[in-house]
Specification:
This protein is of the alpha+beta class. It has one domain. It is built from eleven helices and six strands. Strands 1-4-2-3 form a four-stranded mixed sheet. The protein has a two-stranded antiparallel sheet with strand order 5-6.
Length: about 240
């Protein structure tokens, strides 16, 4: 567990679940504490992106490495399996070590899962826009296993959640049609569902397109620094290609 992880519920429930499901690695996705305006606008993007791309319910049934997911704030391991496989030594040079470890676990035919832990633990990841920017900068590009996946993600999210909503809103100003309302609701539906599930502020939903644009810019910044710049800095280390 991270040093700043706070308990909200009975953490031993994870042990019971791991035994019941025969899991050698079990992670809890925490409730993310958001106080400042920057946190309330941008931090919900983490849950939105992760739970839009990773169909967590299927990851319990399908042991594909691409469905491996973990949050470093809280991970429970079977001690014997952890030692035999090599534990965190496997990802000692990886910036995205928690989820990468979950994927390695699956490659090695071990079962792992990530549960909704918002009632079990909470964390405060960042407190200002600068800290959010610097924190995600180090993880953004390295979280993709292939460069082509990164660019597909960037283009898809930019068109789907910035270009299309803005285009539809401008059209509605001039010609109000019911089909445009339906399209707008359809585009925002995943964001609304996740906001309800994790109790995000309404403001984060309204400003979602602009938060996405910021995320896309941050992503290209992360890619450029990692591939052609001075690398990505984290805890006095420089990570580069």
């Amino acid at each position: 567990m991270d040093a700043d992880t706070e308990f909200l519920g009975k953490i031993e429930s994870m042990v019971f679940l791991a035994k019941e499901k025969n899991l050698s690695m079990l992670s809890a996705w925490p409730k993310i504490k958001m106080d400042s305006l920057s946190e309330k606008i941008f931090m919900p993007l983490l849950n939105f992106v992760v739970f839009s791309l990773c169909p967590v319910p299927f990851s319990e049934k399908i042991n594909s490495k691409n469905l491996g997911l973990a949050h470093g704030a809280c991970i429970l391991f079977n001690k014997k399996v952890y030692s035999e496989l090599g534990g965190h030594k496997l990802v000692k040079n990886d910036l995205f070590e928690d989820t990468r470890l979950a994927r390695i676990w699956r490659v090695k035919n071990e079962k792992n899962y990530c549960i909704d832990g918002k009632d079990l633990i909470s964390v405060k990841m960042y407190s200002s826009f600068t800290s959010i920017w610097n924190g995600f900068l180090k993880n953004y590009y390295p979280s993709f296993s292939k460069e082509v996946s990164f660019f597909i993600f960037q283009i898809f999210f930019f068109i789907s959640y910035f270009v299309l909503p803005i285009y539809i809103i401008f059209r509605m100003i001039n010609t109000f049609e019911i089909i445009e309302i339906i399209l707008l609701i359809f585009i925002f539906l995943p964001r609304i569902i996740i906001s309800i599930k994790f109790k995000h502020s309404l403001l984060s939903v309204i400003l979602h397109p602009f938060a996405i644009l910021t995320m896309i810019i941050l992503g290209f910044n992360s890619w450029w620094n990692f591939k052609y710049g001075k690398g990505l800095k984290w805890k006095d280390r420089i990570y580069e290609k």
